[in-house]
Amino acid sequence: MSTQTFTHCYGPIKGEDARSIDLYLPAQASKSSPLIVFIHGGAWRTEDKADYKQLCTGFSELGYACASVNYR
């Protein structure tokens, strides 16, 4: 199965990765596809949403949309 991936920056600075979200969509995504929102740990200092790309891709291959968030 193929996964579509999109990144959106929501921070005050365009292109700032510290405040961004990756959205992984299953190949047959629709408006009714279930969504998992994944917020990694890291005590606001470490880790990155990209560290969990394989996990989110796995969810999308099972038919779930997955949103992985960076935050600061």
From TrEMBL:
<dbReference type="InterPro" id="IPR029058">
    <property type="entry name" value="AB_hydrolase_fold"/>
</dbReference>
<dbReference type="InterPro" id="IPR049492">
    <property type="entry name" value="BD-FAE-like_dom"/>
</dbReference>
<protein>
    <recommendedName>
        <fullName>BD-FAE-like domain-containing protein</fullName>
    </recommendedName>
</protein>
<feature type="domain" description="BD-FAE-like">
    <location>
        <begin position="21"/>
        <end position="72"/>
    </location>
</feature>
<dbReference type="Pfam" id="PF20434">
    <property type="entry name" value="BD-FAE"/>
</dbReference>
